[in-house]
Each structure stands twice: as structure tokens, then as C-alpha cells.
Amino acid sequence: MGYLTSPALSETGYVVLDRHDQSADPAEWRDLEYVGWRSSGITRFAPLASHAGDIECNGFWNHTPPRADKDGVWIPSQVAKAPTLQARALEPGANVGRCRVIELQPNTYADAIYNLHQDDNNRLNTEGTGWVVRAWLNLTDDPDSLLILRSDRFDPSTEIRLPLYAGSRIVVDTQRFWHAVWHQGPEPRYSLICSWTSGPELDAYLTAGNADPHPASVPLPAALVAEAQAEMHRRIEERRQAFEAHGIVMEPTESLYS
Question: At the top level of its lineage, which domain of life is listed (predicted)?
Fold first, then answer.
């Protein structure tokens, strides 16, 4: 039967929308309650919607009852501090699953490449319903920082690099791509991340935002890419050996966050 997907994402799996006027919005993310959670880089999250309305970030399938990344429950204490952010998450009219602000500390390109991971948004999702995708709405102005997408984790020729200006809006099928952010700092980066369900409402939002499936990818020096590749493989091997010392076998293609 398959899933209901967005035509705008069918070709490349990602789109960049017109930028939001972030300067017109209050910096509501400063007042939110943050918690630690595994992700790409040194991060904290401020959840706005979770499985049951608690301040936590776990996948909905890890709760009782388990469900797909849909029907997030808004957290009253958080949305009271950030009504504008909640409104932005609700703007498409699509079903919202997990919704949270990420705080990412500065890192290196090699860090980002090592931390590449795929999401599991559609675990337990029912065929015939909308496919869950992920949106990044960048809150701070980080023009030198890049959202990195790879269709093949180990092949840099598949890499797309998208700059993260204030107000950048990027929607990605994050089960299709390995992804992470290279944040060059010097201050933490903040972005609103939403799980949205594909359907007519999301399609209309993407169309209204002039969704571009072919945005320019930022070039990087070949030597920098090669150095990061070598460092990624070194860290993976180091981790494999550490796990092996404890009797745990790690597959070569296993993500750090799987």
C-alpha cells in the first residue's frame, strides 16, 4: 500500500523554503527548560511536544503505549514560554509529532561527519497514512554553519551542505539521509525541529514557501573532506574496539545513535 508522501520531496528528498523573518519574532528559546539527549554533537533539547506532554525527548515507540512519531502532546509549561514557536510548528496544519528546540555547541566538520545518523520517525507508522518528515527552522543566525546530508554515510560524493541563516526553513526525509550539523560558532546554535506528517496540508505549506529541491550546496576543500573521512573511520574503529573489549559486537555501518 505504501505511505502518503509529499511530491515536493520526491525528487531529492529535501527542500529549502523561503526564509522566515526571524528578526520579527521574540527569542523565546532563551527561557525554555532544556534537557540532555543524544544527538549529533554536544547538545541539549527543549521539548515543546512529546509523547505524553512530559519534558523528555525519547522516541514515541519507546513509551507505553508505543506509537509512531505523530500526535505529539504539547507541554503546557514550555508552550506558555514559547507561543510563537508553537505557532510556527502548527503553521503547516500538518500533524506534529516530536517538537523541540535544539541547542548545539560549536563543533568541527570531522565531528559532524562522525555524528552522521538517520532518524527512525516512521517506526510503527501505519501504511496508507502520511510519511513523517523532519523540519529545521533555524532560530539563530549561523551562516557559516551547515546542515550536512548524505544518502551514503561513507561516500562524501553524496554530500549536500546547506547554510543555516536565521529564518532558514529546511524540510528533509531524514530516514532517507544521514545527517548532522557542522556548527562553527562561536555561540550555541538554536533551531526548532518538528516532525511533520506528509499530506495535503504539508504540500500546501511547501508550495507556499517556494520549496526548492535543488538549493546550492556549499563547496568545501577536498583536503578538509578527506581529513574528516579519515577521522570518521578512525573514531569508528576506536569505538568498535572499545565495544569489543566489553564483549559487544558493533556492525561497521552502525550509527553512533542507532
Answer: Bacteria
What does the DSSP 8-state code read for residue 17? E
Give CA–CA dist 69/28, Å, rounded: 24
Instruction: Confirm whether 26 is domain-assigned.
Output: yes
Asked if residue 153 is part of any domain, the answer here is yes
Residue 158 CB: number of other CB atoms within 10 A?
Answer: 13
Separation of alpha carbons 91 and 85, rounded Å: 10
Residue 120 covered by a domain = yes
113 phi, psi to nearest 5 deg: -65, -40
The answer to whether 97 touches 122, Cβ cutoff 8 Å, is no
Q: What confidence tens digit (pLDDT) does each residue in 38-94 have? A: 665 678 999 999 999 999 999 999 999 999 999 999 999 999 999 999 999 999 999
**Does the structure show a pLDDT above 50 at 258?**
no
Cis, bond preceding 92 (omega within 30 deg of 0): no
8 Å CB contact between 172 and 23: no
The whole-number average pLDDT for the span 133-138 is 98
Residue with cell 541563516: 165
The vertex-130 CA angle with 77 and 47, nearest 5°, equals: 20
Residue 235 backbone dihedrals phi, psi, to 5 degrees: -70, -40
| Residue type at position 169 | R
* 188-239 residue pLDDT tens: 999 999 999 999 999 999 999 999 999 999 999 999 999 999 999 999 999 8
Residues of the domain holding 180: 7-217
As given in the structure block, the three cell numbers for residue 129 are: 497514512
Residue 100 is part of a domain; what is its CATH number? 2.60.120.330
- Does residue 243 lie within any of the structural domains? no
